[in-house]
Amino acid sequence: MGNELQPVEKKETGNEGIERLIAATAHDMEKVNELILERASSHVEVVPQIAMHLIEAGGKRLRPMLTLASASLFGQGKGNEIKYAAAVEFMHNATLLHDDVVDESDMRRGKPAARKIWGNQASVLVGDFLLGQAFMMLVETQSMKALDTLSKAAATIAEGEVLQLSKTKNLATRDRDYMQIINAKTATLFEAATRVGAMAGQASQKQQDAMAIYGRELGLAFQLVDDVLDYGGINRGAKDSPGLGKNTGDDLREGKMTLPIILALEKASESERGIISDALGRENADAGQFAKVLDIINRYHGLETAIDRALGHAENARNAILELPDSELREILRELTHYTVCRVR
Question: What is the pTM (predicted TM-score) of this model?
Answer without folding.
Answer: 0.93
